[in-house]
Amino acid sequence: MTADLSTTAASLVAQAPERAAPGVGTPAGSLLAADVPSVVQSVDWLAIAPPTLTALAALIVLVADLFLPAHRKRLLGYATLTALAAALAFLIPLRSGDRSTFCVTTGAQACSYTADHFTVVIQALVLGGAFLTVLLSLDDTRKLPAGEYWFLLLASASGAALLPASRDLATLVVALEVASLPAFALVGIKRGDRRSSEAALKFFLSSVVATAVMLLGVSFVYATTGTLHLTEIAARLDDVTPVLDTLAKTGVALTLVGFAFKTAAAPFHFWVPDTYVGAPLPIAAYLSVVGKAVGFSGLILVTVIAFPSYADVWGPALAVLAALTMTVGNIAALRQNATRARSAVRLLAWSSVAQAGYLLVPIAAAAYSSDEQIGSTVAYALMYAVVNLGAFAVAALVARTHPGNRLSDYRGLYATRPLAALALGFFLLCLAGLPPGIIGLFAKVTVFSAAVDAGLGWLAVVMAVNVVIALYYYLQWTAILFRGPDGAPEKAGPDTASPAPAAARRFRAPTPLTTAIVLTSTAGILLSGVPQTVLRFAAVSLF
């Protein structure tokens, strides 16, 4: 045995110079490097800076919470605010939209992370939404575990920022869950609150089921194509063998289910009202904007980039979902009782469901025309994010004197807080698509145009009918703001507090909350004055 090993070793040594290239005596390491392609991926740190910085800030806040005394916990909120502002600043050098990283080094040119124009715009939306959520939360975390709250919010924001840049299904699913799992805990973070715990449980269970269905769809797609990169999936789905065609269609349909849940599209919307009512109000605002951005980003990526070959499957499905979602949301919003506890938040929840229906229209239209229709969804999402966060900010202000947050509590708001009433009226008119909310009107027009240009005339008619329905409850709420205060004493119930005296109603609003209202109002006015700032996305390709 020893002799055989010696002979083998001697022969290998003798053959080494013959295999060496280009000259005799080339080291074995160089030989292997020449023959085997490198699998080491270069990392573009600037491209991944926004989600990376947010994730690192989450860890720092969690550790810092262990060492800060209770009276200094507020500093964690300002640290969170600073981290999100820094992450937003890192988007400025990425505005050219031409950076990719974590790319395959052999064969096809496919990357797992791409910072294109679509990525930068959506990252600005989610990080800006998280920034405003922090402003709404700074004075509401005294009764909450501050360290855990800010950690969970930053962790969720990092996942939300990662998702629009994901270009393979594995990264997409991981980003979706990183954005979702902390959100479950945030919804149920009010310890001892039965409503909060129930909302978190409903949110968690329904999300887990949707994720399981989506993962089954992803596995079907992978079994059909043998790859997870979105661009490679699109190329291989072009020539799927007939025996695998049914498997591929099933995988496409099931994959869409998970993202339909995140967008609160009917019939996957049932978790929305109870979750928004049970969650802390800033978290409800966060879910209504950032949560939707996550769902719509993933839906756009898988449909437009990965599954264009099966547009005949997802196009009609999304068109029907859009019509159903906007109709269910608006009809449910009409049924809200003004004197019911938390009816204002419930109306905003059902309104967000209806708005999700409008956002689905251009994505469905992309199946019948071109990818440029996606820009209409992005433009509408930017408008919706600004005005909906503003509406929640005013709701948070009213909730400080009326914890029941009923629609009737807003009666006569103009008499006690005229600027807040004007701001809320403006936000509601933007959502309704009426002047002076010009940006809301133009955003709806771009969505109409997307449907008509794609030949979906029936969907445009359904949307027109729903816009008229929505006018009723938006204008009704707006009118309440400017009516005279109700002199009759309010009935106190288990979910409401006794009416506050007039002096208490004129309390000084917290500075962070006031700042959030001012920022959203200013942004809404500027966008109404210069609507092409966001509407230009409806006329260009973002990929």
Automatic annotation (TrEMBL):
Topology versus the membrane: Multi-pass membrane protein
Domain of life: Bacteria
Subcellular location: Cell membrane; Endomembrane system; Membrane
Transmembrane segments: 43-68, 75-92, 118-137, 149-166, 172-189, 201-222, 252-272, 284-307, 313-335, 347-368, 380-399, 419-443, 455-475
Keyword annotations of the record: Cell membrane, Membrane, NAD, Quinone, Translocase, Transmembrane, Transmembrane helix, Transport
Coiled coil: none
Function, as annotated: NDH-1 shuttles electrons from NADH, via FMN and iron-sulfur (Fe-S) centers, to quinones in the respiratory chain. The immediate electron acceptor for the enzyme in this species is believed to be a menaquinone. Couples the redox reaction to proton translocation (for every two electrons transferred, four hydrogen ions are translocated across the cytoplasmic membrane), and thus conserves the redox energy in a proton gradient.
Record text on subunit structure and interactions: NDH-1 is composed of 14 different subunits. Subunits NuoA, H, J, K, L, M, N constitute the membrane sector of the complex.
Family according to the record: Belongs to the complex I subunit 2 family.
Protein name: NADH-quinone oxidoreductase subunit N
Species of the source: Streptomyces badius
Gene: nuoN
